[in-house]
Amino acid sequence: MIAPSTQEAVRSVALSADYASAGFQFPIRALSSEKAADYRRKLEASQQALGGKFQGLYTQKPHLLFTWLAELVREPAILDLAQQVVGPDILLWSTEFFIKASGDERFVPWHVDNTYWHIEPQIQVTIWIALSDVNPDNGPLRYIPGSHLANPLEVETQASEKNMLISGQVAKGVDESRAVDVLLRAGEVSVHDSRTLHASGTNTGWDSRVGVAARYLATSVRSLTERESASLVRGADIHNHFDHEPAPASDLDEAARAAHAKAADMRLRNMYGARHRDQPALKSIGAAGE
After folding, report:
1. What pLDDT was estimated at residue 17?
2. Is 216 within the bounds of a domain?
3. Cys-Cys link to 174, which of 110, 182, 206, 274 (CB 3.0-4.6 A)?
4. H-helix segments, the chain
5. Among 182, 263, 214, which Cα is nearest to 90's?
């Protein structure tokens, strides 16, 4: 059980040797409860301004649209964790909302993040930031320990409205008896390798499960397909493999929308090819939110 806490001290946390062997580590306190609650209020205000939920391209790289999210993914404690994996020169490649309201029947099937990433070397880390408590009944993230060191499983496509993954990918032959539930308090994070098998179920609890996934790369990483963009969030970039993205000056302003549309299109095209434009889940920003 995770003990309740209110005035937690946020301090630098070293990733243990278990991270290398398990492919994940949690819980790690990155934000105070008060700061997490403030970020959640800002997230929910942004949701309401867009009609009650994020959809379409608003779910891809939203740190380029919202100032509060650009601030969240640059929190020193979060970057300190990323630095332990990717080194002192850090690119923020993407962010994604993973929000399940109470009673939400959507789920995330077993998968690994890097199936469609097309990058090398694999110097990367995902930090999953909880802005609400994550309990056994509201669809927690689940990991398979050590799966990042095993041969990749065969993947099939099972796209549906309830599958939260755009790709619809599902890994076959997962031994779920080994799964570990990721239980977190608001302001805590989980850190995982992109090759670690993970999933999450439906939310049968009373409160929303609110999470943000932030993907960080070393500046030495390059795309194996077309050139992409990323945000330099710490250190220097002597490699210049990615175009540098601007942080938004204000929420959803004209410059932010233009930069976001370009960056999101580059990212999705590199992952899925031209077919991404035909997917209903990836409508244009105008169609999705205005």
Report:
1. 87
2. yes
3. 110
4. 17-22, 33-49, 67-72, 76-86, 254-272, 285-289
5. 214
Provide the domain count of the chain.
1
Cross-strand pairs, 91: 217, 232
Residue 111's φ and ψ, nearest 5 degrees, are -165, 170
Measured between alpha carbons, how far is 285 from 290 in angstroms, rounded to an integer? 8
- Nearest CA-CA partner of 117 in 143, 93, 90, 145: 93
pLDDT, tens only, 182-195: 999 999 999 999 99
Task: State the pTM of this model.
Answer: 0.88
pLDDT in tens, 102-144: 998 887 788 888 878 889 999 999 999 999 999 999 999 999 9
Cis peptide before 76 (omega within 30 of 0): no
Residue 11 within any structural domain of the chain: no
Which residues, 6 or more positions from 52, have their beta carbon under 8 angstroms from its beta carbon?
none
Q: How many CB atoms lie within 10 A of CB 96?
A: 20
**Structural domain contains residue 5:** no
Range of the domain at 99: 25-289
At 240-254, the pLDDT tens digits run 999 999 999 999 999
DSSP letters of 9-51?
PP---PPPHHHHHHSEEEEEE-S-HHHHHHHHHHHHHHHHHTT
Is residue 20, in this structure, part of any structural domain at all? no
Q: What is the CATH number of the domain that holds 187?
A: 2.60.120.620
For residue 94, pLDDT over 60 is answered with yes
Q: Tens digit of pLDDT for each residue in 48-57? A: 988 888 888 8
Looking at the chain, how many residues does it have?
290
Residue 8 confidence class, pLDDT cut points 50, 70, 90: low
